[in-house]
Every structure is written in structure tokens, then in C-alpha cells.
Fold this sequence. Notes:
It is a single chain. By secondary structure, the protein is mainly β. The protein has a single domain (7-132), classed as Immunoglobulin-like (Sandwich), CATH 2.60.40. 0% of the residues lie in helices and 58% in strands. The protein has no helices and twelve strands. The strands form two sheets. Strands 1, 2, 3, 4, 6, 7, 8, 9 and 12 form a nine-stranded mixed beta sheet that branches. The chain has a three-stranded antiparallel beta sheet with strand order 5-10-11, with no helix packed on it. Strand 2 (12-21) and strand 3 (28-32) form a beta hairpin.
Amino acid sequence: MLFPTATLFRDTIEVPLYAVTDTKDGTTHLYAAAFFLPLGSWTVVWNVITMGMDAASEPFTFDATAGVQLRLAPLNALDILWQKQLSPTQWALRLENYAQEIATMSYEVTLDQPGGLVLHPFDPSVVVTPDPIEPPT
Length: 137
């Protein structure tokens, strides 16, 4: 069982996203860390880490158009300043958090794998909080 952990560095939150394929039956499961989005401007970067496949297999990559899409974001609490694919295995969003109270949101991930497999998984949680955290300078 994986317990991914998000990391914070300056104004960036990095979220590992594990795509784990069961070598016995070929099913794939996704695991991502829940994380807090403090008040202010933040870049969130998701990194796909492919596990459980043989060395000859291609890794999972973000879909070039869908990547990570926010769902159920709190109204009047967030602005998406930009989003883009940084590399086949990295997706980034720049967010401005204006939250006046604690809320949660979710996001959807779209991954591709050679052979046409596309995953539209799960409902990982993000806690949006009005508590400020000053990024280190």
C-alpha cells in the first residue's frame, strides 16, 4: 500500500501521482496525496510515477489536453491563473486562493498509456484553507 505525501517548496506544492499496475491481473490503480492549498498564490505540480510494469513497458503520461482538471472548487475562492503540461509526466496549475473559510475540492486526472488506455480516475481531496503560509524566501 502506498501513502504518497505532497511536499512544499517556496510557492510550489508537488504531488506524486502513482500509477500502479498489478503484475498479476494487469489492473491499474492511482494513488495521490491529499494536500492543503493555503491562502495566496501557489503552483501545484503533479508528477506521474509508474510502478509495477515490466521494464519494456511505456510509462503512464498525462493526456496533453486534459491532464488535471479541478472539480467542485469552492465558489469565489480560487482563480486558475494558468495550467499546462510541463513534460509527459508533469502537469502544473497556478492557483490563487482567496478562501474565507475552509472548503474542499477535488480534481480529475486523465492519463494515457500506449495501447490506448486512458484513466479518468478517482476523487482525491484538496483542502482549501484561509490560513496563510508565507513561502520561504
